[in-house]
Amino acid sequence: FCIDYVTFKSRLIHAPGTVRDDLVGGYGLGNIVPPHNTATAGYGEAAASALRILQARNEETQPLEGHLRAALAYLLRNQWRRDRCFACAQKGFIPGGFSEHPASGRIRIDYVQHAWSALGHGGRALGLLKAP
User: Fold this and answer.
1) Torsion angle defined by CA atoms of residues 54, 55, 61 and 66, in that order, rounded to the nearest 10 degrees
2) What distance lies between CA 29 and its chain's CA centroid?
């Protein structure tokens, strides 16, 4: 089920040439509404698990690795940084946090938790990070 679910959801990860470059890797239903960071992160969490299963089975991983890399890169681009936070009030600004989507200045713990979970588990599944 995990692999089928992630395969189905991979259709919603924006590919190069279908959206603006800064939206590539985001999870969205089209190019009119910005992708949501939390949905992208949820995809990343599930994709990391599916990738580990495929690796354990010695099955093909390349397509999923590409989608997961794109989703993680999207999250990193959308992490709060001073140089990109033109609409953020300085009071309460939290570098390293995540909002719901690029057009939102709100931050909630679930936006941050899912993004960091996806980055950690996804990074390890891709071999970009070492296990603690």
Assistant:
1) 110
2) 15
